Structure formats: C-alpha cells, structure tokens
Input
Amino acid sequence: MSEVYANRRSRLREHFNAGGAAAALVTRPANVRYLAAAAPRGSVLLLGQREDLLVCPVPPDDRPTEGRPDEALPVHVLPAPGGDCAVTAAGLAAGEGAESLAVEEHHLTVARHRALATVAPRLRLADLGAAVEQLRVVKDEEEISCLRIGAEIADQALGELLESILVGRTERHLALELERRLVDHGADGPAFPTSVATGPNSGRRGHRPTDRRVEEGDFLSVCLGATYRGYRCEIGRTFVIGTSPADWQVELYDLVFAAQRAGRESLAPGTAYRDVDRAARQVLDSAGRTEALPALTGHGVGLEIDEDPQLAPAAVGKLDACVPVTVEPGVHLPGRGGVRIDDTLVVRPEADGGPELLTITTKELLAL
Output
C-alpha cells in the first residue's frame, strides 16, 4: 500500500510545484489520512523539498480504527505536549531552505495562519486550495471495497432493526440501537449521527431524534451510515408502522421512489452533476411538490460523509467512473410527515453494468 500513498503525494506535488510552491503543508484531517494512511489526531503532513514528513503530537499506535501511517513516510513527533504540528512543520520547511509553502487556507484559522508566518517569516505562504479534495473524488478499488463493506454493515444493522418491535419506542432509542448494531457488526462507528424520524417528523433531512414514540400508522424514516477503515457510506429508507399504508402515503412514497430511481439511472461517466439533480428534481416538480424540493439530490462520500461532487442545481462539473455518490431525494409535508430514500452508489460505465448499488435493503414500502 505504500506505493498507493506515495503516488497520491506525487500527484499533489506536481500540482503545487506547477503553482510555484516548493513545499506544501496538509492540515485537514481527512486529507492527511488520504495521503499518509493514518495519523494521530492533530497530525499534519509536510511535503518538503527533500522528503515528505508526518508531524505528529504523539507517536502513532496500532489502534484498529486508526491503523498506522504509511511505513515509507518518516515521522516527526513533537518533543513536548501542547505544541502545534503545523507551526513545527512550517519551521522544518524553512529549515530545509524552502522559500514558499502551499497551505490549506480553507482549513487553517486566521490565528494559525499568523502563527505560521511568525515562525517562518521568510517563507512565502500560498494557497493549496482544494487540491487534495479534488484528488479524493475518484476512488480506487481498495477505497470502494471499504465503502462496500460499510454498506453491508449498514444494511445488516437496518435489517435487524426492522425485525424488532417498533411501536412505543422513541426515535432516540431506535437511533442508539442502530449505532450499537453498526459497531457490533464491525464498523469503526456511525458515519454521522443516525436519524430516526416518525410521524410528522418523517422525511426531514438530518432530523435529530427526539423522545417521540412510534405510533401505529406512522411513516418511519431512517438514515444511517457506517464507517469502515475511515470510509463512510449512507442509506435511508422509509416504512409504514403497523398497518397498511394510507392512500396519501402510497402516493407520496411512489413519487419519491420514482425521483430516486430517475437520479440513480442518470449516473454515468460524463453526466453533469446538475443533470443528475435535474433528473430527480423534475419528477417531484412535475407532481407539484415545488414547495418541498430538496436543496440537493446527493453528494460524494468517502473519508468524509459529505464530499465533492455535490449533485445540486448550480453544481459545475461532470461525473467520472469510480466516484461514489448518494442519491437521496425526499419530500416532507409539514404536520403530516414524509419520505426519504437514500442509496450509496458508485458511478460505473455502461460496459461495466452501469452504477453499482452498494446499499441493497429493499425499497419496497413495507408495513412493519
């Protein structure tokens, strides 16, 4: 695996060298992990003129959820606790004779940026921009394998919950149970705070579970995700509790399902991000649900749960193969509830079978 990480760092080096910087400092945690395999919290990565260096506040250990850094990457541990790894790395770059250093300005605070300038006043600081995030968009098969396993874990946890008695239990209790099941089945932990929404809360994106209890006839919408070896996926489903669904529930569910299917079927290399959004959005718009249209249809996933690309009306860019994204339209009717359906898929060319569905829990409207 060292070759994989060395290649990623080499591609980044080509980018910032082309921009005129002699060295680069990576501070955003997900970006450090992408380039270094693993690192203790607070670590930064210096891509120097002569060598790359992982600067850590404490020595790396072998915790299963963290792993160890790329074995080919030298490690510099701060001599005393309480120091700032980024400031130390800037000093090391200046000591190497670098005249310029590209930094992630979108991640550094103003105070931290000033500290870098203070410790190395002759070092010209430039903006690295979102160069690492752009490298992260297309995943290799090892990354996709981690996402696939995470999706299997999430499917398993959700499937077990659906076999239990739900009436009378609170949203909060169900969310906690789902997160426990994720860990029981091998996840590092939840990919994000689990959302369980019932009755009038159902269908809301990012709903925080409350003490409302599940009642007969409720819509129950669930959105959860697993983290596996740092990679995060998500799944969302909506069900009816305890009885046959009402006509309005069937109608609304069929509408959201059609929108989600349109979004999924539009995923292909070369498709514009906004066209995926448009495919799902038009289904909802044509049914007169303009007041409930979501802000976006989906987004990328990986080391973070909300990555590029953004599948939104104003998004600029086109999909590549091996880009994992969510497709997650939903409609919420105030006071009544709503429906969300959310899958994680990997963009594949038609010759390879089209988009690969990672989350496979049924999307049939089940009465539980």
